[in-house]
Amino acid sequence: MTQTTNHYIQTGEVTSTNVPWYDAPLQPPLPPHIQALFETYVGLSPSEAASRIESIVRLPLPLSSSIPYLPLLFFILNLNLLHPRPLPRQRSKAWRITPYPCIGQHTFLFTPITHRPHLYTEILSRMKNDNALFLDIGAGMAQELRRFVADGAPSGNMVAVDVGTDFWELGYELFGDRGRLGARFLRVDVLNEDEDGDVDDEDEGRKELDALKGRVDILHAGSFFHLFDWSAQMCALRRLIALAASNALFVGHQTGREPAKETDIGGKPRFYHDEESWRKLWREAEEATDTQWEVETVFGGYEVLGLKGDFAWQGPFAAFSARRIR
């Protein structure tokens, strides 16, 4: 184990791009579905899209002090993969906010829901034909929202939720749609409680989110649940179920583990699911909320997203869907 790696695990901080999840810049040709999004929605050629992505997401900027690596050092299990790399003296806009692997490896652009065509087609149809209300939890740069909008879904029926505004603002820069994207953004911490267990009324956006209780038709949580331990996941899931309409569909993805395990990163526990533990979490949530859901999970490698390269060190890719039946 290198001294740098040991620092990651003990403190949860990333202080450079000398990590295995920071890849070389994107070069044309881009993966087809990424290029299609930037051509149809943004109006950029392959070379223009690649340049935009790097300039907004990863263009080197003056190096600041160490950046807290909030959620995703869970995958540093196979330490022999941490080979030495040159240490750039600068870092990118998104990397400076939080150096997630999805930023360093561009995987945030792969919108996993589009790789489950039966669900994507259903969701798109419900938004276009039934005015379904779509809620994106932990939206980041809201790339999933834009994918649906590019395919004809009305953005006025979309709500994005996150704990901060930085990635949301970068999304406007990346996609160049400030003023034409009608989605609402709510700054909300779905885990925020006061000492009595009640929701903190000062949490910005909370009242607007609470007004959606029982009304949300489609819920999406991409790379969200694996940021928390079991109890926090249960808290979040209960609150999100409270927002769900009677015929709601809940979809998302996360990094898993086989077998499931809790990992401490920088003093913060994270729980990573296998199929059995994920179903158990849902059974407990169903009991707590007096609801019933038909839960499906897909565990496998990242090649299902069309990704090339070594992603095995992140653990299995875990996609899920849950359909409310009561």
Strand content: 15-25%
Query: In angstroms, what separates the terminal alpha carbons?
Result: 50 Å
Mean pLDDT: 82
If strands are numbered along the chain, what order do they take across the biggest sheet? Answer: 7-6-5-8-9-13-12
Shape: globular
Helix content: 25-40%
Class from secondary-structure proportions: alpha/beta
Largest sheet: 7 strands, mixed
Rounded to an integer in angstroms, the radius of gyration calculated over CA atoms is 19 Å
The count of β-strands is 13
Number of helices: 11
Task: State the low-pLDDT regions, or none.
Answer: 1-6, 60-91
Query: How would you spell out the order of helices and strands?
Result: HEHHEEEHHHEHEHEHEHEEEHEE
Characteristic key phrases:
disordered N terminus; 326 residues; 13 strands; two-stranded antiparallel sheet; 20% strand; 33% helix; alpha/beta; 11 helices; seven-stranded mixed beta sheet
